[in-house]
Amino acid sequence: MLALDFFQTLLDVQHLAQHANMTNVSQRLLQGGRRAKNYLLSVDTWGEFEMKILTRFASMISASELRPLVQLAVQKIAMYQQQAVYEDYMFRLLNSVFFATVYTDTQLSAEILTLMSREMTARNNADNHLKYRLAEALQALAEGQIAKSRANFEQLTTVSQQIGLTFDTFFGFSAQDWLAFEEQVKHGQQHTRILRFEL
Hints:
This protein is an all-alpha fold. It has helices at 2-19, 22-42, 48-57, 63-78, 89-101, 106-123, 126-142, 146-162, 167-171, 175-186. The protein starts with a helix and ends in a 13-residue tail after the last helix.
């Protein structure tokens, strides 16, 4: 029954986004975040569905409520990582949650970045290493370290060009979004969330 209620909330939010003003949409998104949190806390066994819910709704859950959910997810995923198909799952989950938090809570995103670093080191995966470098550069930018983040951004752009791909294609993240975020930081503007889901 909880899953049915949750799906109804998703449909309500989608309908509202198409037919209502932004204030109502924001309120409904927050309500969707609360329902997602309640659903996740009520389920004993997490599977891929629950992990996807966490990544999709992470940006709608407050940092104080998201932190314990991430800790819970880390515990739940640990049992799956023994299976080859889920070996990379932890990093992908953390990467998605990082993107949901870096624009709004740099302390939480820094904690997630530390977890990503541990996971990246444990798995020694080149793709994850590059995604980590992107996250690390975004974290530096969010913390106002513009020169450092720009240097990392340019290195990552060079890497993507060397293998014949655009930055956007290689990282699944728009270079234009990067530049817009950089401008927001430079001018002390509120950050716009750029959501990126991997699971």
